[in-house]
Q: What sequence folds into this?
């Protein structure tokens, strides 16, 4: 099984997506947050690119979530902090979500055979789900406005490491680099995340606890998978028809 | 001092170059080979993009060197293997050189304040020279046809490590990733290089010894620096006029 890691959304080509399982990572914070929403009982997360699209797609009962410049969007119910997505708020409700990088990455990946959302929080479950789908895998690091983000790369390294525990895989060169980098940093991922550009920025504006939360490995078994435009927990969608 | 590592030549923007010291790395094999040529007494290396340009720029006494698809170009004196650049062949002569990635990277970097060529063979000397120039630094991994190459990333990590021994530096996220990856692999760089895409390809076509040669750290004090279109050893050019 080939596993190619791609450094930013912009670099992902159609060839990287077609007939593959794609794992999109925006570890700080979109994919961590939307996985948390599903873990606490949200019925689905609708990833959209713009604030206007979010408002247009909102149905009665839906929550609006997301960020611009790391902050909650005026008029939205929720920001992009996993701590906001509590069971008493999201249980049984759909969240329409727009973020600067992560939801855009998921949108772009829609041509793939299957699209999963990965983070430190669900890395092992995500690797197991991708392995089970038995196709070549592309791991897309969302990055930040088309620049590589180390937190996404670290998470890609962790997912590659989990995949290697399950079966032989052939990694592309960026995958080899990020696997090695992850293994060097794995003893203190919180420190590594706080040292990244986004980790420093989030700490500066009051979201240090989010960085620490997102640095936890394998706390959820939930794997968000895109199904008809909505991210739902993997077990809850009908089997794929070839 | 800011140190930004850039993953491929294609990604380098004018902003990455202007007013900076640029270090171009094509560890397998162009920058290793041209540094070897200078270490064994070549008077200069002229990096050019095309075979035709190489032939046009050749002056009496000049050698033609380089590769296409990893192999020597028909009619050229030398290929892209460091072992060919022996003292009895290159001493006192200029080499006009064209390779698929490395010499193109050096060409593109010409807008920088200073352009150096880095490899494992001269990493420490290269870091020291760049630190002494006292400008922000961009380390450009040449990559392979606009795709990231791990051997160049490993070398960028090594040079970042050497820079950090000399002074405080602020690394961009790719720099942090490659520094961590280098530190994980540093105990057996030869194995790491043999596992890269280019390492495997070169081994397959008979150049395994080149990969092992290029994996040696800090064996030369030579730092190739671009001066009026020619790479010459750093000590041999007149001081920079501001």
A:
């Amino acid at each position: 099984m080939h596993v190619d890691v791609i450094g930013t959304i912009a670099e992902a080509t159609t060839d990287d997506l077609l007939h593959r399982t794609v794992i999109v990572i925006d570890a700080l914070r979109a994919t961590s947050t939307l996985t948390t929403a599903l873990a606490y009982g949200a019925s689905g997360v609708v990833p959209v690119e713009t604030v206007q699209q979010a408002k247009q797609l909102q149905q009665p009962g839906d929550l609006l979530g997301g960020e611009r410049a790391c902050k909650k969007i005026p008029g939205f119910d929720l920001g992009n902090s996993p701590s906001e997505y509590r069971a008493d708020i999201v249980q049984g409700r759909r969240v329409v979500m727009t973020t600067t990088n992560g939801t855009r990455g998921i949108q772009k990946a829609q041509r793939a055979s299957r699209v999963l959302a990965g983070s430190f929080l669900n890395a092992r479950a995500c690797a197991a789900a991708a392995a089970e789908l038995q196709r070549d895998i592309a791991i897309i690091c969302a990055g930040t406005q088309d620049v590589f983000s180390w937190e996404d790369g670290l998470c890609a390294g962790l997912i590659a490491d989990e995949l290697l525990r399950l079966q032989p895989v052939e990694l592309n060169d960026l995958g080899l680099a990020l696997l090695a980098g992850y293994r060097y940093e794995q003893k203190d991922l919180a420190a590594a995340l706080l040292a990244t550009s986004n980790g420093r920025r989030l700490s500066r504006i009051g979201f240090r606890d989010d960085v620490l939360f997102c640095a936890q490995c394998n706390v959820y078994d939930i794997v968000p998978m895109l199904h008809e435009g909505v991210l739902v927990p993997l077990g809850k969608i009908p089997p794929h028809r070839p």
Observations:
- Chain A touches chain B through 23 residues (CB under 8 Å).
